[in-house]
Design goal:
It comes from Kitasatospora aburaviensis. One of its GO terms (molecular function) is kinase activity. Keywords: Kinase, Transferase, Two-component regulatory system. Pfam families: GAF_2, HATPase_c, HisKA_3. This protein is an alpha+beta fold and 561 residues long. Helix 2 runs antiparallel to helix 5, helix 9 runs antiparallel to helix 10 and helix 11 runs parallel beside helix 13. The longest helix has 63 residues. The chain is elongated.
């Protein structure tokens, strides 16, 4: 009997030693997991380490970490351990926080279940999902705010999760909250550094006299890089039309968006332009509120549109950023720096406008000087020369020579008329405040640069501001805008040349590109409109494919119909 009692005591001692060793090993594993999680500074890697450590600590076959989205009701991210890529693909989309997973969102307290399917909130599993029985869920808090939840299922060996497992995972969740907070702070510091660097780069571009398109592209590109967006667009409001036009497009199918005009209502950029505050969506491609314009956002999910406004409240444009579907939504921490960036973009637009005003003023002053010099110097000299030749013709006896001199006098008279008409055109241009045909054509050509991705080459000849009637000039501007829009959308060209001529009896507009040519089965409504405009004015419209390739559009109408 004493020997039996001794054996029992030794077995009990051995069991307690084994339990102490197991506790020691588990504590060591927990410490190693905490250190492993705390060493990481990249938030994605931190989350991945947390899930992996949790599965190892409690011998769970499956583990997951669900990150709660900005709405506080659904999951915006879901990281898993224990499932292969093939199994994940067969199961389908990640859960969004309904059923048992949502129970921890609504009641952020540890939850242990012997059979998860028996819980009232369980909705069952989708097809191809592995069967899971035991369950342990623990919330992860960051600064007293629930960041997400750890979900563990199916303990190895068919056992249930016990109180020790719950305590270990709860301890890991505390350490995870600290690690997540550190990773967030580091990520935010890195992001702020990148914003400051980009701001300095943009400031240098502004002060060095960079063009509007260059500065806007720099702003959109840097905002896209720093936020990890897959698409960036800059849209500007079209005065008096209730629409916005995409002036700059980066990423995705730029050809489907560049130059596109969409109404304020039904578009994310339009909503930001109308409200003057940032507007977000979780599904840019599928949001039923954003149905204006053609389909152009396939595969895109989270998006934000930030207005580019001046101090006096005027909206000069909108910066749109979008990510692929399934990626995280834009948070307030990301939108805050974007607002500062938007102020710089508005400054770029305003500086570009002021620079254009200065250049316009300088050009008008130069035109006035040229007109004055032509009137005071050139015309007087030509008139004096004509008078001299006319006097000389009286003393020339040879009939042929006399006729030539008189023809030269007539040519000088005609030249004086042309110069006077030019002077009138220059001053009429100034009086109209930039509303002459030449200035309108220049403006339309400059606006097409953003959609084309390069500046078109422009050549103008003749007395366009004086000889071309207003009605014809309006048609010319409309035809040019349509031709350049077609080139931007369909031609995929690397060069576009615009030639506008007033020959005295006709005005001829030619637009030629080196693109892919006109498709046989393409839409013809735009070209039909150009032909109808020409027919209305008694002119002709021709579309040809020159020998080297591309398209040549020729539109010619008489000056007097």
């Amino acid at each position: 009997m004493p020997q039996l009692r001794l054996d029992e005591l030794l077995e009990e001692l051995q069991a307690r030693i084994d339990a102490a060793r197991g506790t020691r090993d588990r504590v060591h594993s927990l410490l190693e997991a905490v250190l492993s999680v705390g060493r990481e500074l990249d938030l994605t890697q931190v989350l991945r380490r947390i899930v992996e450590a949790a599965a190892v600590l409690v011998d769970a076959r499956y583990a997951a970490l669900g990150v709660i989205g900005p709405d506080g009701e659904t999951l915006s991210q879901f990281l898993t351990v224990g499932l292969s890529e093939e199994e994940i693909a067969r199961i389908g989309p990640y859960p969004t926080g309904r059923g048992l997973l949502g129970e921890l969102i609504r009641h952020p307290e540890p939850l242990r279940l012997e059979d998860l399917s028996a819980h009232p909130s369980s909705f069952g599993c989708p097809a191809h999902h592995p069967v899971m029985r035991s369950f342990l869920g623990v919330p992860v808090r960051v600064r007293e705010e629930v960041f997400g939840n750890l979900y563990l299922t199916d303990k190895q060996g068919g056992e249930e999760f016990d109180a020790d497992d719950e305590a270990v995972i709860s301890t890991l969740a505390v350490a995870a909250g600290v690690a997540i907070d550190n990773a967030r702070l580091y990520e935010e510091a890195q992001r702020q550094q990148r914003w400051l660097s980009a701001s300095g780069e943009i400031t240098r571009a502004l002060l060095s006299g960079g063009s509007r398109s260059e500065v806007l592209e720099l702003i959109a590109q840097r905002a896209r890089e720093i936020t990890g967006a897959d698409l960036a667009d800059v849209s500007v409001p079209v005065d008096g039309t209730g629409t916005v036009r995409v002036e700059l497009a980066l990423g995705g199918d730029t050809g489907a968006r560049a130059g596109l005009v969409v109404p304020l209502e039904g578009s994310l950029s339009g909503a930001a332009c109308a409200s003057g505050v940032p507007v977000t969506t979780a599904d840019l491609a599928g949001d039923p509120r954003l149905s204006a314009g053609p389909s152009r956002f396939a595969g895109l999910g989270p998006a934000v549109a930030v207005p580019l406004g001046r101090a006096e409240g005027q909206i000069d444009g909108v910066l749109l950023l979008a990510r692929e579907a399934g990626r995280p939504e834009f948070t307030d921490r990301e939108i805050g720096p974007l607002l500062g960036f938007a102020d710089q973009a508005a400054l770029a637009l305003e500086l570009a406008e002021r620079r254009r005003d200065v250049e316009q003023l300088a050009m008008l002053e130069d035109r006035d000087r040229i007109a004055r010099d032509l009137h005071d110097l050139a015309i007087q000299r030509l008139f004096a020369t004509g008078m001299t030749l006319q006097s000389a013709a009286r003393v020339i006896d040879h009939p042929g020579a006399s006729d030539r001199v008189l023809r030269a006098v007539g040519d000088l008279d005609e030249t004086i008329k042309i110069i006077r008409s030019t002077i009138f055109g220059l001053r009429a241009r100034e009086e109209k405040g930039g509303q002459g045909l030449r200035s309108r054509v220049v403006r339309v050509t400059e606006e097409a640069q953003a959609a084309l991705g390069f500046p078109p080459r422009l050549s103008m000849e003749g007395l366009l501001d004086t000889d071309v009637p207003t009605e014809v000039a309006d048609h010319v501007v409309a035809v040019l805008g349509e031709a350049l829009s077609n080139a931007a959308r369909h031609a995929r060209a690397g060069r576009v040349e615009v030639v506008l001529q007033a020959t005295g009896s006709r005005v001829v507009l030619t637009v030629q590109d080196d693109g892919v040519g006109t498709p046989e089965q393409g839409r013809r409504s735009g070209l039909r409109n150009l032909a109808e405009r020409a027919e209305t004015l008694g002119g002709v419209f021709e579309l040809a494919s020159p020998e080297p390739g591309g398209t040549r559009l020729s539109w010619s109408v008489p000056l007097q119909h």
